[in-house]
Amino acid sequence: MKKKNIPLGRTFFTNDKYLPHNDKNAYKDVNVVNIETNKKGEMIVVRLSKQKTKNTSPLKHHTYKGFKHFVEIEDIDKQPIVSGKRFKQNSSKYDLTNKQVDFISDIVYNHSKQSQRNQKNRDKFRNRYKK
């Protein structure tokens, strides 16, 4: 079954319980944005947020006010993140521009406290199927 490529910047609606988290009360609906996809339709996502909190950066000119500094490559069950039951695609009108995706990638990989963790996750994602 061939997955169609998901555009970078596409946002997805999901719930915190499907993402790795430390907060026991983290069962709220969240939106994430796809910043990288592989040929299997698996994604690297970043959580979007509507308010400024710790470990977030502002996102100009968008419904979402900011984004978290953590990239996620697996759901809570250690499965790759794919479009489907747990991660529902939002309408394309909520897509982020390539410029916004580049901005998010630059921050999460180069300018956040979590950048080393994020780079490791990106490498793991990119090398997942290399033998």
What does this structure look like?
- Strands 1, 2, 3, 4, 5, 6 and 7 form a seven-stranded antiparallel beta sheet that branches.
- The protein is built from two helices and seven strands, in the order βββββββαα.
- Helix 1 crosses helix 2 (about 115-125).
- The chain has helices at about 100-110, 115-125, and strands at about 10-15, 30-35, 40-50, 55-60, 65-70, 80, 90.
- Strand 2 (about 30-35) and strand 3 (about 40-50) form a beta hairpin.
- The protein has about 130 residues and is of the alpha+beta class.
How far from one another are the termini? 22 Å
Count of helices?
A: 2
How many distinct beta strands?
A: 7
Order of helices and strands: EEEEEEEHH
- From the spread of the alpha carbons, the general shape counts as globular
Q: Supply Rg.
A: 14 Å
Give the averaged pLDDT, no decimals: 89
Give the uncertain stretches in residue-range form.
none
